[in-house]
Design a protein that fits this description.
Elements: H1 2-43, H2 47-68, H3 75-99, H4 103-127, H5 133-156, H6 161-182, H7 194-202
Helix pairs in contact: 1-2, 1-4, 1-5, 1-6, 1-7, 2-3, 2-7, 3-4
Length: about 210
């Protein structure tokens, strides 16, 4: 029973860790696409390109707030702001591409499209969780296995309290790790928003943009 329980614990931790790594990779990808789109917007002449670059700077800050906010209730507001900025950016891009259909404007359109796609990937990564049946099966298995252990100890008349306490502490630590990895916005294991912070720092101070 404990061997099967240990296998289920390892499987669940693996699922939770893969979700965490997906969120981390999504943040890096989005930061890279935002930086690329901003650089290409700065390379294009005209008021629409300048407006796009300014909007990307606001967009990066919104995406940073989305990643590091500890409050799940803030997500709808930040997602709505993300969608509004994406629409506004595309409204400036459309006349720019139509008036000057050059390879540079085409590359800007491609990078902005990648930036928008990356936001969707990031949202999906943050919303992904460990399959529900795994933690439930793990909890039920733990109750059965520990109950059987207690019954066996009662029959044998021996009480290895230190070993039982150590096992319970380790088992509880494993369960807490799963819960921590499965909740991306709170806890000790959260996604580091450093790539987005570095991207915003790369924009430079407002006076030099």
């Amino acid at each position: 029973m404990f061997a099967l329980l240990a296998f289920t614990l390892g499987l669940t931790i693996s699922f939770a860790q893969s979700r965490y790594e997906a969120r981390r990779d999504a943040v890096v990808l989005e930061a890279n696409t935002i930086g690329t789109a901003w650089l290409r917007a700065k390379a294009v002449a005209g008021p629409d390109a300048a407006a796009i670059a300014a909007l990307i700077e606001q967009y990066a800050q919104v995406r940073l707030n989305y990643v590091r906010t500890p409050n799940v209730g803030d997500e709808p507001m930040l997602l709505a702001r993300t969608n509004a900025l994406q629409t506004e950016i595309w409204q400036h891009l459309t006349p720019l591409v139509q008036q000057a259909p050059t390879p540079i404007s085409a590359s800007l359109m491609a990078s902005l499209n990648d930036m928008i796609d990356a936001s969707l990937s990031n949202r999906f990564a943050f919303d992904s969780r460990t399959p529900r049946h795994l933690p439930i099966m793990l909890l039920c298995g733990a109750l059965l296995a520990i109950g059987a252990l207690g019954f066996q100890i009662g029959l044998s008349g021996q009480r290895p309290l230190a070993l039982v306490a150590l096992m319970l502490v380790m088992w509880t630590g494993g369960l807490l790790l799963i819960v921590d990895l499965n909740r991306p916005r709170i806890g000790m294991v959260v996604v580091d928003p450093a790539p987005l912070v570095w991207t915003i720092q790369g924009f430079g101070p407002p006076s030099t943009r």
